């Protein structure tokens, strides 16, 4: 029924984003709030919530075949990267660190147009972020 | 690390919501927009998008251990129910129909406080929606 | 250009929801996280975030002319009501209390089908929530 | 009560994002779906929905004092820019075009660190997007 031209690498990126959304949200709203201390330090807690939010957005853009998922994935990679670093500093958050790192890597590839497609092995013509910014 | 008091039935409901979010969003933005005709009829298309949106919200409430997930699951059940009916009328949308029906059923149980918990088998004291509405 | 059949009471409800979204989110992520103590107590903080989230959803449903905004507004009224109570208990959160109360009231009217329309003064045929729940 | 260090330019950007969210969502779900034809052409309609979604996200990041709003605003600027162009081509969507253009401009300034602050006139130390991308 549904014709989705989603390559394997994009499918992997969607899965990584949805997993990171779920992990960061669940950890922030349970573990972090219940533990307190550095876990509810504003900068760290904001990163957890914002990471969850943009991961959901990036997944939704890709599920919806957006032609402009590139810059969204680039932004998602940066937020995930910052969140992973913050989780490492706080400590005891290995699950989040792993989810954020996996999502950083697959979003980074998406943003750079390294989505190689299913069959052809040919790089998509998506330009890099800085070429496309309307600035 | 993460202490989540999520019962098996709530876990199932979260999974059903996230699956329904993904299925409805992906189908609306690809199959429906590309097929047109009854698939982009306003009432049907709105239901698809709103169903995806509230399924994500309901999942987020449960992942975040919300004390007020009951009325949200009740609302989600109603939207999923309406979306399933609309998809049946349009036809050729079996995947959405199944996702919406499964989500309707598990959200309905959550809303009615039929979440039996992990160990005790004792019904949660969540009151029914109409008791709790501040009206 | 845009033909929106939004009645004055629905327009008011949309405005109340968007104001409550903004107020709760901004307060939770700044005042609550920076103040700590009872402001980051899990139950209270979750209510703040979930209230912001469902207010945005309810506004989006009404902006998108959803046929099933009734149960969403009912759920939004209950979450806003609980959030207002929690903010009163914590204290020093008058802006949130007021935003949540205004949103509770206008969402409650929407859910009960008290949206009287612009010109006719005729009550919409939207049934009450308990009639329509697919249970 | 609430201490928000939001500069005037960031406040303007938040307002522009929330206005663009509302305008694109309301237009897509009403005018576009009811008019059909080029208004529900997949690429155009997706841009409308994705523009509404990322504008809400960008506003939420800034309302929540995110330290990583820069790349999100950069992505938002690009999506709004693409949406404005698409709306111009379709025609008869002046309100969307204006909302998207205003949002493109203020998000572009946020992303470039041109948020000059309220009093000091000193540029924030936010680096440009390409410096900060974890690639």
Q: Can you describe this structure in just a few lines?
A:
Four copies of one chain form a homotetramer. With 135 residues, the first copy, chain A, is an all-alpha fold.
Task: Report mean pLDDT of chain A, rounded to a whole number.
Answer: 85
Which segments of chain A are poorly predicted (pLDDT under 50) over 5 or more consecutive residues?
1-5, 116-135
Greatest interface and its participating residue counts: A-D, 35 and 35 residues
Radius of gyration of chain A, taken over Cα atoms and rounded to an integer in Å: 16 Å
Strand content of chain A: under 5%
Tell how many strands the DSSP assignment of chain A holds: 0
Helix content of chain A: 55-70%
Please identify the oligomeric state. Answer: homotetramer
Alpha plus pi helix count of chain A: 5
Could you spell the SSE succession of chain A in H and E letters? HHHHH
Characterize the overall form of chain A.
elongated
For the sheet with most strands of chain A, the description reads: none
The separation of the N and C termini of chain A measures 40 Å
Q: Structural class given helices, strands, pairing of chain A? A: mainly alpha
């Amino acid at each position: 029924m549904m014709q989705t031209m989603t390559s394997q690498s994009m499918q992997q990126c969607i899965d990584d984003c949805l997993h990171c959304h779920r992990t960061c949200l669940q950890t922030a709203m349970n573990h972090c709030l219940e533990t307190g201390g550095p876990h509810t330090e504003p900068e760290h807690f904001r990163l957890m919530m914002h990471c969850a939010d943009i991961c959901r957005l990036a997944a939704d853009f890709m599920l919806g075949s957006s032609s402009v998922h590139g810059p969204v994935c680039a932004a998602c990679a940066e937020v995930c990267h910052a969140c992973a670093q913050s989780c490492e500093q706080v400590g005891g958050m290995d699950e989040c660190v792993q989810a954020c790192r996996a999502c950083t890597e697959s979003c980074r590839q998406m943003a750079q147009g390294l989505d190689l497609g299913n069959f052809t092995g040919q790089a998509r013509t998506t330009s890099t972020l800085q070429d496309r910014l309307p600035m």
